[in-house]
Amino acid sequence: MSTHDLLTTADVAIVGGGIVGASIAWHLAQRGVTNVVILERESHQGLGSTGRSMGGVRAQFGTEPNIRMSLYSIAQYRDFEQVVGEPSGYKPHGYLFIASSAAHFAHLAANVAHQQSLGVDNVRLLTADDVGALAPMVRLDDVVGGSYCPTDGFVDPYSVMNGYTAAALRAGVRIVKNAEATRLLVEGNRITGVASTRGVVSAPNVVMAAGPWVAPLATTAGVTVPVSPLRRMLLPTEPFGGIPERCPMVIDMATGFHFRPEGRGLLLAWNDPDEAPCREPVFDPAFVEKVLLRALERVPSFIDLAVNPKRGWGGLYEMSPDKHGILGPTPVEGLWCANGFSGHGVMHSPATGRVVSDLIVDGRCDVLPWQPFALARFEAGELLHEPAVL
Ligand SMILES: Cc1cc2nc3c(=O)[nH]c(=O)nc-3n(C[C@H](O)[C@H](O)[C@H](O)COP(=O)(O)OP(=O)(O)OC[C@H]3O[C@@H](n4cnc5c(N)ncnc54)[C@H](O)[C@@H]3O)c2cc1C
Hints:
CATH superfamily of the largest domain: FAD/NAD(P)-binding domain
Structural class: alpha/beta
Largest sheet: 8 strands, mixed
Number of domains: 2
Strand order of the largest sheet: 6-7-5-15-16-17-14-18
Bound molecules: flavin-adenine dinucleotide
Oligomer: single chain
Helix content: 25-40%
Radius of gyration: 21 Å
Number of strands: 20
């Protein structure tokens, strides 16, 4: 079949079968829209950012739109098994932010007050002693305090993506793999479908859920989606016993080093501020020394950590200019964005599915704020500012 032949018709075509595309498909099916086709260019799902994520979920953000997206998403992750009928692997171990400067502590205090005002009832500001009680392995001599929210934590992104997909397929949604979307089809100012390497899907609605690869696709419809890929790396450790059983995600604000338990070991992360733009997320062995140096600065017992550099991996964040997602309509009628999560697409995929499906079905979403995430904000100069991005 050539790219010009008709593959199928649908009410909605979704480009990208990662966690975001899968969530949108499931949410559409919940609304009764099941004539939906997901196009995934790979032979199976999860080969994009979703399968390379750290899986962290948190309500501890600085901006109202992000906090509200997280509140919706974390509640759905908590109830995932009943609601979606599949496991999410949600572990509410909490996120523990550690401040070792007065400025960082003041920043946490302001964020906690803001989060509480928006309904994050269980987030709290910590003394240095509180930090030590939650994470006894941490060096405390310079710690001013911290913040902690016990319903933050982590999920298994792969399970979530597969769960949404399986439930959507049971409802009648279709997925076509090995199908790369090559061109968006526009007549006048209206989307009519999408051409792929497996043929054309004719559809009055097309959702761009192509993660870090969205920008070139959007261009084929004459739309600029300002998302660029940025490599991030993770390093798993061998089994390590020196942490509490319910160890939270621990973030050292002084360096940006963070870690969480993974199996019987840990997953170590550090976002290199000097990372150059890069489309191939190969793991750089130099990362091992960089992350371990910062790990040791905060947790002296990590001198005993054993790591195998061959087990490290890299992936791509999908960065937007203000590090917030880009959701909703585009200048082309029927063409929708679900991109630009800047490292938060796993934690915000449930809310994104709700927003995008409501917009397609009702033309509005009353339960979540989508206007602050609109593509139009860039032209209007109404950028958001999230001070803390991991
Ligand atoms: C190292 C690392 C750590 C992270 N940690 C976290 C975290 O702790 N918490 C969190 O919330 N987020 C985290 N993220 C970010 C998160 O992984 C992403 O935001 C999220 O996975 C985005 O999901 P997605 O479905 O939009 O994109 P993807 O998972 O990349 O899916 C996009 C899909 O689209 C397909 N595709 C692309 N172009 C086309 C095309 N033209 N035609 C057909 N298919 C196409 C791709 O093959 C891919 O399957 C992390 C990311 C990385 C790299």
